[in-house]
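Below is the data:
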Amino acid sequence: LVTTEDPEAPAWRRARDRAALEILYGSGLRVSEVCSLELQSMSSDKTTLRVMGKGSKERIVPLSSPATSAIVHWLTLRSEVANETSGNALLLSSRGKPVGRRDVARLLDEACERAGIVGGTHPHALRHSFATHLLDGGADLRAIQELLGHASLSTTQKYTQVSVNTFQQNILGQA
């Protein structure tokens, strides 16, 4: 899903879409957080993002290597759509304005279609996948809570249900 590209889209759009998808999945951000990222959100060493979450709570999240590469590539092409309305927004629409939630949902729908995912998905599903994959990899629930920016551990625990169900199915299926 993340690596699928529209071969007919301009290079800037392919780069922007890849960066958005890599950030959504690789850092577990909410779609609103992705839309509000600014050029200075990425650390100088390109390993983390400074994110303003719900309740104006700021957090630092790691960037995966693919996300870093995708952002760096996008930044080489950003000027093709940037204009006086762009400001410091990291991700831009074709009109040079900061991307909105609908823009992100649309690019995800298009990626799902190219990847053959029937019925598509929602940007928040990538956040759930991020959390589930961390948990499946042995990450501590409190660390996941911090990365997701949840105030309550019970909110983070909802993200683990899929992982627990998958684990139980795998155990029962092998028995």
User: Anything to note?
Assistant: Confidence is low (pLDDT under 50) at residues 170-175.
